[in-house]
């Protein structure tokens, strides 16, 4: 494994992250690691731009243009045009804005179509939209039947590209095409896709998308999210949150709202500059990496992990919950076990950091920029030891914290 790491073209990126010694970090699909340059970048924003520039930095440091500037950089990672992506708010808030806009753009249609077990906040936001808009309903259909469920009643197909729990990946192009064939719009959550798997929203003719900044983009806890609106829809969709930053001329301070041109109309409140500063550092780092090498390594790491677990941990009650086909999964692997929570707590105590998803999932994320092949080998070695010794049975591993 050390030879594979030595030959890895992405290996130099590991030194660009402030990872603690002795830690195998397999949770970048939940919270990305800290880039070395982030602290200095935030310090510069605080001490120079805020401390010295004061309010002048809205112009001099282009704070006011940060949502579009960072959005244009993310566009390069997801196969979008630079003027189709905007950084703003949280994934949940962006999903709300785009869902309402999409439903209103399809009058006479009543269904937001999704799958049961979609990421909970996506379902909650959709349910909130249905409560708000008369006649709208959320319909959940198992993923194997989702294509056949799209019909003339569907206003919006709302799915997560890579499932947060299982890691299963939808065929985004095929389902978007199916939605279009029936006159519906397609809205994709890319939170577990961006920076993890190859994306080409323009080629797939995706209408709308959202994604977060704190997973594979390494923007830090609670980093601002992004939204994507295809160019051909920008003039016709309207945001339900008509804040002053989405106004055509916000600093004229007019009483009546007039939407800004293009994707900027989906801005709402004042941009979170410190969060944007951290996110931009993470995105810039991602843009330095060769994308083909990135996605090839993602596939290689997940494939290696599955093979090693099945070879070395057999007979201990683990079951693969992630598709075996690399083309049908993202960059994390989930294993089922009846005692998944306690086992994960024991692993974390040994420096192998993944996470638990109820009711029975051990989840391991493989971020190609800083996870190596030797990390995978040693991580599985510790997993086998935890299972063989029954270490997870200790009382301290049975207690559940607020965040799992």
Automatic annotation (TrEMBL):
Pfam families: DegT_DnrJ_EryC1, KYNU_C. One of its GO terms (molecular function) is kynureninase activity. The modification N6-(pyridoxal phosphate)lysine is found at residue 215. It is an enzyme of class 3 (hydrolase). Its cofactor is pyridoxal 5'-phosphate. Its EC number is 3.7.1.3. Keywords: Hydrolase, Pyridine nucleotide biosynthesis, Pyridoxal phosphate. The keyword Hydrolase applies. Signal peptide: none annotated. Pathway: Amino-acid degradation; L-kynurenine degradation; L-alanine and anthranilate from L-kynurenine: step 1/1; Cofactor biosynthesis; NAD(+) biosynthesis; quinolinate from L-kynurenine: step 2/3. It catalyses: L-kynurenine + H2O = anthranilate + L-alanine + H(+); 3-hydroxy-L-kynurenine + H2O = 3-hydroxyanthranilate + L-alanine + H(+). Pyridoxal 5'-phosphate binds at residues 91-92, 119-122, 160, 189, 192, 214, 244, 270. Belongs to the DegT/DnrJ/EryC1 family. PANTHER family: KYNURENINASE. Catalyzes the cleavage of L-kynurenine (L-Kyn) and L-3-hydroxykynurenine (L-3OHKyn) into anthranilic acid (AA) and 3-hydroxyanthranilic acid (3-OHAA), respectively. Homodimer. This is Kynureninase. It comes from Sphingomonas abietis. The gene is kynU.
């Amino acid at each position: 494994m050390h030879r594979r790491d030595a030959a890895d073209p992405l290996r130099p990126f590991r030194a660009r992250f402030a990872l603690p010694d002795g830690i195998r970090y397999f949770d970048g699909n939940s919270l990305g690691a800290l880039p070395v340059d982030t602290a200095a970048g935030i310090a510069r924003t605080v001490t120079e731009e805020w401390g010295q520039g004061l309010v002048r930095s809205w112009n001099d440091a282009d704070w006011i243009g940060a949502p579009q500037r960072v959005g244009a950089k993310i566009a390069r990672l997801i196969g979008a045009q630079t003027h189709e992506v905007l950084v703003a708010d949280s994934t949940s808030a962006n999903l709300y804005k785009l869902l309402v806009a999409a439903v209103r753009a399809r009058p006479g249609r009543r269904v937001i179509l999704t799958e049961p077990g979609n990421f909970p906040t996506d379902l909650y936001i959709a349910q909130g939209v249905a409560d708000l808009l008369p006649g709208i309903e959320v319909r959940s259909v198992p993923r194997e039947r989702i294509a056949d469920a799209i019909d003339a009643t569907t206003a919006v197909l709302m799915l997560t590209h890579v499932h947060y729990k299982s890691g299963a990946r939808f065929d985004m192009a095929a389902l978007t095409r199916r939605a279009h064939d029936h006159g519906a719009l397609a809205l994709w959550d890319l939170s577990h896709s961006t920076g993890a798997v190859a994306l080409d929203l323009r080629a797939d003719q995706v209408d709308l998308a959202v994604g977060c900044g704190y997973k594979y983009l390494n923007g830090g806890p609670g980093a601002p999210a992004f939204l994507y609106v295809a160019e051909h829809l920008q003039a016709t969709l309207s945001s339900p949150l008509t804040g002053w930053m989405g106004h055509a001329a916000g600093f004229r301070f007019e009483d009546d709202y007039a939407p800004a041109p293009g994707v900027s109309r989906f801005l709402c409140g004042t941009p979170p500059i410190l969060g944007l500063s951290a996110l931009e550092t993470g995105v810039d780092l991602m843009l330095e990496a060769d994308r083909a090498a990135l996605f090839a390594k993602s596939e290689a790491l997940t494939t290696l992990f599955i093979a090693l677990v099945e070879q070395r941990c057999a007979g201990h009650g683990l079951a693969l919950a992630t598709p075996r086909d690399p083309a049908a999964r993202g960059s994390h692997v989930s294993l089922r076990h009846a005692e998944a929570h306690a086992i994960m707590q024991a692993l974390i105590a040994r420096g192998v950091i993944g996470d638990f998803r109820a009711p029975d999932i051990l989840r391991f994320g493989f971020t190609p920029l800083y996870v190596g092949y030797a990390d995978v080998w040693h991580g599985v070695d510790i997993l086998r030891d935890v299972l063989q010794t029954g270490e997870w049975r200790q009382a301290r591993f049975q207690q559940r914290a607020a965040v799992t």
